[in-house]
Amino acid sequence: MSASIAKNWIGLSAIIAVCLSAFGCQVFSTTSGARFASVEISGHSTKEVSAATIAVFDKAGYMSTGVGDELLFERDGPEWMQIAYGSNIKSGGPVSERIKAQIVNLGDGTLRLQCSAYAMPESGGIGDKEMQLLMTRRRPYRALLEQVAQKFSATP
């Protein structure tokens, strides 16, 4: 029986090692926002990009906080998020959607606007729990960042 347990332990260890090597670096990377959703904008200041980002997210129904190169946006999460991350009916509160956006100076007059998205079950209290959304959910956030970039495409 101990040989069977050892064999299972080795198999489980191998699976864990593969998972950590495939996904571990992404979890702890400081540029995870760039991988989730990002656009590059040239020839404009951080202040201009920040103002345009706030305008786009406000129009999409988000409440904005933060200034400068660190922005935070929140709203009630969509129905799929309520189902996927919601608590049981008795506990109440809706799941909130939180977007953390950063403006990173890449040099040579180019800025990268990047974001990560989170579901926040039972938000509104001290110690809100953030659950980062998977890469497969990035399309709508990428579209919002592209709207910000489009605001500057007509500007010389």
Outline:
This protein has 156 residues and is α+β, with helices and mostly antiparallel strands. It has helices at residues 2-28, 32-36, 46-59, 79-85, 139-153, and strands spanning 37-42, 63-65, 70-76, 96-107, 110-120, 131-132.
Topology of this protein?
Blueprint lengths: L1 H27 L3 H5 E6 L3 H14 L3 E3 L4 E7 L2 H7 L10 E12 L2 E11 L10 E2 L6 H15 L3
Antiparallel strand pairs: 1-5, 2-3, 3-4, 4-5, 5-6
Helix pairs in contact: 3-5
Please describe what this structure looks like.
With 156 residues, this protein is an alpha+beta fold. It folds into two domains: 1-29; 31-153, TATA-Binding Protein (2-Layer Sandwich), CATH 3.30.310. 44% of the residues lie in helices and 26% in strands. Strands 1, 2, 3, 4, 5 and 6 form a six-stranded antiparallel beta sheet that branches. Strand 4 (96-107) and strand 5 form a beta hairpin. Helix 3 (46-59) packs across helix 5.
List keywords for this structure.
156 residues; alpha+beta; 2 domains; six-stranded antiparallel sheet; 5 helices; 26% strand
Q: Give the SSE string.
A: HHEHEEHEEEH
Q: What is the number of helical segments per DSSP (H or I, 4+ residues)? A: 5
Percent helix, as a range, is 40-55%
Number of domains: 2
Radius of gyration: 20 Å
CATH architecture classification of the largest domain = 2-Layer Sandwich
Q: Using DSSP, what is the number of strands?
A: 6
The level-1 CATH class of the largest domain: Alpha Beta
Chain-averaged pLDDT: 77
Low-confidence runs? 11-30
According to CATH, the homologous superfamily of the largest domain is Kinase associated domain 1, KA1
Shape: elongated
- Largest sheet descriptor: 6 strands, antiparallel
Distance between the termini: 73 Å
Sheet-strand content, in percent, reads 25-35%
